[in-house]
Write a structure and sequence with these properties.
By secondary structure, the chain is an alpha+beta fold. It is built from nine helices and eleven strands.
């Protein structure tokens, strides 16, 4: 590499590839400091803009993160394992008075900034919930944090006519959360559908989740249905992709 550098053959992609190899092999383990721009210019015989561009490639891939005043480090990945459908089983989760979260991390995370409003829903939500024109929803917004790190934003929508006067309209929904309250109202959710996709975060999401440069988010939209296929909730979740592993369990037969 240094011989090539003297002949002017090293580009930013070569440097990025070399650093990526060191990260993948464990030569640069999680949490370790990555050579800075000055180190890279000396090591590879390149100009500073080339070294900076090589680091930007790995930042955009989510492999390294810059910490102000400290340098650049290999990202530490300590995933939350989100297991479906286990987390939605009534007998071991919300139906037993436990939070859905407990199946993911074993303990209840900190819930921050809970906001409850009554408002007109976005058109896609209104359509999924089969609402009439002008019908309102109870909206619950919150952020979840694990080990003081925000990892997820969530917004849930419930038909106002269905949940008015219940604990779903309050900040604290009680043991088992909103699904337990829906069951008490005679609208127990028994079937769920989740749609997933990834995208880059909006600026407001990046700030709320304190995301590192180049980190995408996972968008999960879950709809809960009763036994007679009535949709009773739509929840939109925005997950820090660097914080999660999504695991799905299913059999080959119904």
């Amino acid at each position: 590499m240094t011989d090539n550098a003297r002949r002017g053959r090293v580009g930013y992609r070569d440097i990025a590839n070399d650093l990526r190899r060191q990260i993948d092999s464990g030569e640069l383990p999680p949490g370790s400091k990555v050579p800075g721009e000055n180190d890279l210019t000396s090591r590879y015989g390149v100009e500073q803009p080339t070294a900076r561009r090589a680091l930007d490639v790995l930042k955009n891939e989510g492999l390294i993160v810059a910490k102000r005043g400290s340098g650049t480090f290999v990202r530490e990945f300590k995933p939350i394992r989100r297991v479906s459908p286990d987390r939605l089983q009534a007998g071991t989760s919300w139906g037993a008075g436990r939070p859905i979260w407990s199946t993911d991390v074993g303990t209840r995370p900190r819930t921050e900034g809970v906001e409850v409003d009554v408002e007109l829903p976005p058109a896609p939500v209104s359509e999924v919930l089969n609402l009439d024109d002008g019908a309102r929803v109870v909206t619950r917004r919150r952020r979840y944090a694990v080990d003081d790190k925000p990892v997820q934003l969530a917004t849930s929508y419930y038909p106002e006519a269905l949940v008015a006067g219940s604990a779903i309209t309050e900040i604290n929904t009680g043991g088992g959360g909103a699904y337990a309250r829906l069951r008490e109202l005679g609208h127990e959710p028994v079937r769920f559908r989740e749609e997933l996709r990834t995208r880059m975060p909006k600026e407001s999401e990046r700030e709320a989740l304190d995301l590192a440069q180049g980190t995408p988010v996972i968008l999960i939209v879950r709809t809960a249905y009763t036994a007679d296929d009535q949709p009773v909730e739509v929840t939109e979740m925005v997950l820090d992709s660097a914080a999660y592993v999504l695991e799905y369990k299913f059999g080959s037969q119904d």
